[in-house]
Design a protein that fits this description.
332 residues; alpha/beta; four-stranded mixed sheet; two-stranded parallel sheet; 11% strand; binds 7,8-dihydrobiopterin; binds fe (iii) ion
Amino acid sequence: MLFQRRSISSQVHRCTFPRTLEELQRKVKTCLTNETGLAEEDQECLTDKAYLKRRNLITEISSTYDLVNDKAIPHIEYTQSEAKLWTALYQPLILNTKSHAPSEISSNLETLLKECSLREESIPQLDTISEFHHGWSGWRLRPVGGLLTLQEFLNQLAFKIWPATQYIRHPSGLLYNHEPDFIHEVFGHQAMLMIPECHKVLHKVGLASLGASEGELEQLAAAYWYTFEVGLCLNSKGERKVLGGAVLSSMDETRVAMESERLVGMDIGIITNEKYRQSIQYSGFQPFYVVSPEIGELCSMLDTWLDGFLQRRDFVASYCEESRTIKVADKN
Ligand code: HBI
Ligand code: FE
């Protein structure tokens, strides 16, 4: 009886996940936060009508992106005040990465700056970074309007697509922003995503999210959240470093996290359990930081965990690079 019920639910799940870019294109809507996509704590930003209008305009432009035909990502004419924020954070965030990120990440950031000709004076286009990434790792970036649901975010990873916002944070969020803005995407995530072990394991997280139940999605989200979004890790000398993009792209939270005594050792069984899944806090400084081992070791730990996860499925989902589709096969 139990077996039967399991197979029915996996059949249901099988037809509900996107297999083509057309299906993936239709699926993105931002709904983790309120209607504007802004966190409630972000009051200054919420009451700034001109900022909200600008942000909605950028989101509208982002939403015209044609994912299916692989057209260029829409260009944003950034304003002078947006460029001022980029300029104010450019050198500080590079220095932050050099001082506090693992060496693989800081050397990749240097490569990214050089290869994409990033400059202090002007905000680059998402398309430039996506093109570079595609050549480097096979991944592309896709413009989105803000925080996606767990399922939508994780499903993109299966297609080697990194959902990235294009808007720039409100000036009140200079040193700590409640949400992912374009500065967070560039300085928080791209150098990490350039590490082969990282993008391979994130792709596998994406594949594992296809057809996953609510509980499984929450486990995958927790594994991602406590590592690549808000985690710390060790370097080869056993020193504390910042791995998570949300922390690395915030000058203030990096300082707090580097000094924090509220640390939890990485244990994949523990950080994906009910208690930790429920404790995910999307906004504000993290109440605690999970400390992972070195990046290579962390990725192989996650990889093994994901294998166990995938073994429990009665089908295999794989990504075909050429057709950019998900192929689904029965296990036996
Ligand atoms: N959406 N755009 C975006 N960026 C994220 O990092 C993100 C998200 N939605 C959900 C989410 N992260 C977390 O729940 C992860 O743990 C999956
Ligand atoms: Fe992020």
